[in-house]
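Annex B. Sample input.
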Amino acid sequence: MKRTLNKEALMTVAVIIALAAATIAPWPWI
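Annex B, continued. Sample output.
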């Protein structure tokens, strides 16, 4: 249970960070 919740939490955090990076990062990269 804990491992599954941790994996889901990590995936959620990863998606949020990816979205934030996608919205913020493209300016310097381009």
